[in-house]
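Attaching the record inline, Q. Sequence:
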Amino acid sequence: MVSACLLARRFARFGNGIILDRLGNHVSVWTAPHLGLGAASLGSGITRLPGSAIVAQFHVEDLRSLIERVLERPWVALVELLVIGSVVYAVLRFLQGTRGARLVQAVLTILGVSFAVVWLLADRFGLERINVLYPYFLMGVFLVSLVAFQTELRRMLTRLGQGGWVRRFFHGHAEIIEPIVTAVGRLSKKRIGALIAIERTTELPSVTESGVRLDAMVSSELLETIFWPGSALHDLGVIIREDRIVAAGCQFPLDDSSAADRTLGSRHRAALGMSQEVDAVVIVVSEETGSISVAIGGRLQRALTLDALRDTLRRELAVERERKDASTAATETAPGVPGVAGDGTGQAA
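Structure, as predicted:
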């Protein structure tokens, strides 16, 4: 009866086997898998349950001070959490699909195991030397991570140095639309198959690694050369990032749900599969008919004209600058020919 009253007065139970013990200004968190009424008194005067283990200790005044600081300026805590979350999200997104993603998992596993050893074992059994060496261990993990992630760090610094995000913010994809439309028009006229994926908000590192790295400026001549029959890269896809052709000969994921549609070839199924998995605009030129299609978000727009393709790219790639000066100049150069205006490709509308 006395033990039961003692438990009711000193302990608070949270969930299955989690005990909160307060003694004066000190609070301890214990684990007790088998909660019973028997209590054992230690020499320090702290009462604990048989078979329990301490997992955390803190001072009430420290906890109260922390809560007060958060309540005084809650927006500061919110900004800090947003900054930390944004940094973590940016790093994980940058490493997604690369070798660095697996390294991150390994590093996190090492840190988790080391944390468990230090805070759960060293503190409990008084292993002071491990506590002293733990900061040096963390420094060693940091240095090893710099060496392990040197490829990813170099790629990140290179992208920052090129200022690609600045160009994307101010110019979008405006400078690549006309070369792509020109190349697609010529390939369509000659009935040469093509498959082009243009990245939008997400990169395609796993798909890029399946092909041949190019890192070349987008030009109609290069696109036509890649897809020309006999080229080693003409059967697979091209990936465009910002104003660069980053890779060619890339294997795109196929859309299995469209396999029953016999009107769709392998390129169209690959375009649908790619647009379903990532945020990209995928252009397809049929090798059999020369028709032009665009896949966005798992939907296929078929039998597009060059003007429709150009408008689609401007709309989907968020290009605000419409080139009205060219059409105005073409109209002024042919004032006596009604109904004929330039479309930017040298063809009559």
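The CA atoms of residues 65 and 204 lie 46 Å apart. DSSP finds 13 helices and 13 strands in the chain.

More tomorrow.
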